[in-house]
Design brief:
about 300 residues; Rossmann fold; DNA polymerase, domain 1; 2 domains; 7-stranded mixed beta sheet; globular
């Protein structure tokens, strides 16, 4: 499996260019995956070292092979990115989060991430710990399942899908779950794409506590940046992007609570600034080469002053 973990880094050239101004030192690649972004950064900037985190042991092994030529400029750690505060004590030149699920995780059917291939309903990025998606599907109350699907964009269909899932229990395979979801929605919805896509995404996010991990790790990353350091986040889901935007917005105001049309009197001090407004998207050429890049959004913030 290590040899087949092919990692195509999304927005690679943009990420490399955006880290050009950072001071020499350590960048934490908080979701190192197969090592594509880390490789590009180490090749481009001789003054950088990288600490790479990932909770997927297969990805970490692949990154180890890909990045071994960099010697002591790379250190890999089997850990979720919420453990960022524990992995290095020095101020950071940068932090990169490439969120979501990787192509190899989707392509290896036995991982249970895909609704197009048959497998146990797993979806854990770290297969050594935690509840599987199958446990959620078969054990959560109907109302909790409906809330989970609603939070991921199913809207008025969330209750209908949850009811069908509960009636079909026990569900043991990904294709079985996908078929139950498809049968639960109107034909017009099925014609717009596979209706299980958002259901599987919702389960994966819940199983891996992806939003909770981001909410914990991102403020730590901003606090740990050296002056001139940058933090970049590539998200693939509206919930991830919305949370990133909220945390970045709070950082650039220093947490100011004053009305936006009045001078600040609350004493907030801004230590960060956005590198650009809004989110950048992959080019049409990149999406043509790598269709899974289509939903990517890149936001970047820089540390501008010491505390």
């Amino acid at each position: 499996m290590v040899q087949s973990f092919e990692h195509i880094p999304v927005l690679r050239d943009e990420v490399v260019a955006l880290f050009a101004p950072v001071p020499a030192g350590v960048i934490v690649d908080a979701t190192v995956g197969g090592g594509g972004h880390s490789e590009a950064l180490l090749d481009a900037y001789s003054g950088l070292r990288i600490v790479g985190l990932d909770r997927d042991a297969v990805a970490l092994a692949a990154a180890g092979e890909r990045l071994s030529r960099f010697g002591d400029r790379i250190r890999l750690i089997h850990a979720p990115f919420a453990a960022l505060a524990e992995v290095t004590a020095e101020p950071l030149s940068g932090v990169l989060f490439d969120l979501g699920v990787s192509s190899p995780q989707l392509d290896h059917a036995e991982r249970g991430f895909s609704f197009r291939a048959d497998a146990a309903i797993d979806m854990r990025m770290d297969q050594s710990i935690g509840r599987t998606a199958g446990a959620l599907v078969n054990e959560l109350p109907e109302a909790a399942l409906a809330d989970l699907f609603r939070e991921n964009g199913e809207g008025r269909l969330s209750g209908r899908i949850a009811r069908s899932v509960v009636r079909a229990r026990p569900l043991t395979s990904t294709l079985e779950l996908a078929d139950v979801v498809a049968a639960a929605v109107p034909a017009a919805v099925r014609r717009k794409g596979h209706p299980a896509k958002r259901v599987f995404q919702a389960l994966r996010i819940a199983v891996n506590d992806e939003l909770g991990q981001l909410e914990t790790a991102l403020p730590v990353a901003l606090d740990r940046l050296a002056v001139g350091g940058r933090c970049a986040v590539i998200s693939y889901h509206s919930g991830e992007d919305r949370l990133t935007k909220q945390i970045f917005s709070a950082a650039v105001t220093g947490g100011c609570t004053c009305p936006p049309d009045l001078p600040c009197v609350c004493g907030a001090v801004a230590l960060h600034a956005l590198v650009f407004r809004g989110a950048r998207r992959p080019t049409p050429d990149e999406v043509a080469r790598n269709p899974r890049a289509g939903s990517a959004r890149l936001r970047v913030i820089a540390r501008t002053a010491a505390a």
